[in-house]
């Protein structure tokens, strides 16, 4: 194991010089950008970093997206983790997942940081309905404002619910 100083990732050691170079480059971007990530050892010693934008409203306080970066020493994969639990590989066949290989480590880290920062800036809004569903829950739908893609839903809406009573900016 090699020592590394990456407190924004809660990481103190790496498996290789390439991994350390990747972490240090990505950590430098996080320092400048003011963001933090969690680090994980998930499969075969591969390093996985995640950033999880949340709804900070105390009533909800939920993870809205799991933005994931996997680095294996030679390639980087980045994209939204569909499970929020790192139980599958990032599938490059899915929309929003990228794989880069054959580039210097610093370039791979820059590409991953660019993607993370772009995704963290995307605005998210919460659609709120006052009417209760059949379980007595007021439905909520968190949406990427730039595309309208739903990312998290609470409650069950039938088509007769109509448009939301409010649209509340959450992030971005």
Number of domains: 2
* pLDDT averaged residue by residue: 90
Number of H/I helices = 2
Radius of gyration: 18 Å
Question: Strand percentage, roughly?
Answer: 25-35%
- Describe the largest sheet: 5 strands, antiparallel
Portion in helices: 10-25%
Q: What is the topological layout?
A:
Blueprint: E1 2-6, E2 11-14, H1 17-33, E3 38-41, E4 47-51, E5 54-55, E6 62-63, E7 67-71, E8 75-80, E9 98-101, H2 105-121, E10 124-128, E11 140-144, E12 150-154, E13 166-171
Antiparallel strand pairs: 1-2, 3-4, 4-7, 5-6, 7-8, 8-9, 10-11, 10-13, 11-12
Helix pairs in contact: 1-2
Describe this entry's structure for a reader:
This protein has two domains: 2-121, no CATH class; 124-171, no CATH class. It has two helices and 13 strands. It has helices spanning 17-33, 105-121, and strands at residues 2-6, 11-14, 38-41, 47-51, 54-55, 62-63, 67-71, 75-80, 98-101, 124-128, 140-144, 150-154, 166-171. The strands form four sheets. The protein has a five-stranded antiparallel β-sheet, with helices on one face. Strands 12-11-10-13 form a four-stranded antiparallel β-sheet, with no helix packed on it. Helix 1 packs parallel to helix 2. The protein is elongated, with a radius of gyration of 18 Å.
Using brief descriptors, characterize the structure shown:
2 helices; 172 residues; alpha+beta; 2 domains; 4-stranded antiparallel sheet
